[in-house]
Batch of 2 targets.
Target 1
Amino acid sequence: MSETTISGGRSKSWKVLLVFGTRPEAIKLAPLIRELSLRPGFTPVVCVTGQHWRMLDQVLTLFRI
């Protein structure tokens, strides 16, 4: 996928907000977060709700989120 250009010749970067609060949600979204971070033109922005932060901490560390 090529980057989209806007007027002035600057490339546009898309920020994608991913919100989750449970360990299963984090596990499901981890591949998407990784893929977005590898693609030019996309910046994943992660928002953790803190619903189950103790269990989430392990998953976030494991997937380097």
Target 2
Amino acid sequence: MSCCAKVHVPLSPRCSNINKQISLQNPKHKSKLIKMADAMSYEYLLRRIYQVGRYGKKDVDADVYRSFEHAERLYTLEQGNIAKGLPRIDNRSITQLETEYRVGCKHIWLIIAKALKAGYEKFGHQFTSDQKQIFEHLFVEPKELTKDHLDQVIDTAESIFVKYKIYPA
């Protein structure tokens, strides 16, 4: 049996209901399951910029991003449960969950924006004019921050730093 073989395990009714919500067949969740490196990409980007090892600087830790991802997943799942009339998983109001998600977005954005500015000042002399323009666009905060936007900023910035072989310490 290969490591990726599907095994049928009978689940309790509650587990099967949750399993249906987070099904691999659902394209909305497929990208989240495939893209597991978001938290590590966040950490590596910041470590590249600040040239530090693990725990070398405050907030340069994948767990900070994972906490934000948890808030985003819970908010998204609860929105879906409300729309479908399914039972709620969390007892906090949807407004509280949204606030937690939005605060997390802003917190991650501030960390990334500060790091990108530091990275641009430190390594910007190596970048081409096109890459400098890309960085200037990355600095602009959108009207509504989302996890997708943050992931795109991280991926774009990380690809530029990798091209110049700027690696974490």
